Amino acid sequence: MAKATDRVVFIKNEQIDWIESAGNYVILQAGEERHIIRETMASFGRGLSATNFVRLSRSLIVNANRIVELKSNGQGTFHAMLRGGKMVPVTVGLRDLEQRLRFGL
Fold first, then answer.
1. Amino acid 27: pLDDT
2. How many domains does the chain have?
3. CB 15 within 8 A of CB 31
4. Cα separation, 72 vs 76, whole angstroms
5. Structure pTM?
6. Rounded to whole angstroms, what are the CA distances from 96 to 22, 26, 47, 85?
7. pLDDT beneath 70, residues of the chain
8. Structure confidence at residue 105 (pLDDT)
9. Which domain holds residue 60?
10. What is the DSSP string of 18-66?
11. Strands 33-37, 78-82: parallel, antiparallel or unpaired by DSSP?
12. For residue 100, what are the CA distances in angstroms to 28, 60, 70, 89?
């Protein structure tokens, strides 16, 4: 749920593409819409399904169904390519991430 001054928008978990941390706020991307919510990443993350969402870095949680591939830059770091072509950095353990994506853990 995202509140604005004149409306409340209800967003289902499966509509979420990714969530970014911005201090005491989270920026929620759902399709073409971006919502800013006054909540910390830790508290917002507790309400998400652990099987559908993966943490790619300290400040980014992504809907696992939106990840198309993991790409190396050739220097030991990886980026995840999301549907739509957005590239996001991966700073968590790659082996664990690959296993979760492969087996839906």
1. 94
2. 1
3. yes
4. 7
5. 0.79
6. 25, 25, 22, 23
7. 1-5, 51, 93-105
8. 47
9. 2-103
10. EEEEETTEEEEEETTEEEEESS-HHHHHTTS-TTTEEEEETTEEEEGGG
11. unpaired
12. 22, 16, 13, 17
Angstrom distance (rounded) from CA 71 to CA 74: 9
User: Would you state the structure tokens that stand for residue 47, as one six-digit string?
Assistant: 């309400």
CA distance between the termini of the chain: 26
* 39-66: pLDDT as tens digits: 998 888 888 877 688 888 888 999 988 9
CA distance 29 to 36: 9
Q: CATH number for the domain including 69?
A: 2.40.50.1020
Are the C-beta atoms of residues 67 and 101 closer than 8 Å to each other? yes
- Cα(22)–Cα(36) distance, integer angstroms: 9
Give CA 77 to chain center in angstroms: 18
Pairing mode of beta strands 78-82, 67-72: antiparallel
